[in-house]
Amino acid sequence: MSSAIGAAEQTASPARERRWLSLSVIAVAQLMVALDATIAELAGDPLADIQDRLPELRDQRDPVAATAQNALAGSLTQEDLETLVFVLGRIEAALRARAVASV
């Protein structure tokens, strides 16, 4: 009986790895969409403070694209994860600044 369980665990492991790889690819793709949507949204805002944030956000497109390529290749590194956290923080900061400025 234990050999059947061991065999099931071995066959489930590759499926589990593919699932996490797929989820990481989807997450990075969603970050790319969120970054582009934020840039597009803020580009039309006349507030000067917001306009100052656009170059910083645009500069993050290449690192996010590189992270997406690494996710597709199945090799996300710690640096890639740090890039994702940084970009998410910059998006959040820009949107919060816009919300505060528009009040």
What report would you give on this structure?
With 103 residues, this protein is mainly α. It has one domain. The chain has 4 helices and no strands. The protein has helices at residues 2-43, 48-59, 61-73, 78-101. Helix 1 (2-43) packs antiparallel against helix 3. The longest helix is centred in the first third of the chain and has 42 residues, at 2-43. The radius of gyration is 19 Å and the shape is elongated. The relative contact order is 0.13.
Give a summary of the structure in a few sentences.
With 103 residues, the protein is an all-alpha fold. The chain is built from 4 helices and no strands.
Query: How much beta, percentage-wise?
Result: under 5%
Number of strands: 0
* N-to-C SSE string, H for helix and E for strand: HHHH
Give the proportion of residues in helices: over 70%
Number of helices: 4
List descriptors:
mainly alpha; single chain; 103 residues
Helix-strand blueprint:
Layout: H1 2-43, H2 48-59, H3 61-73, H4 78-101
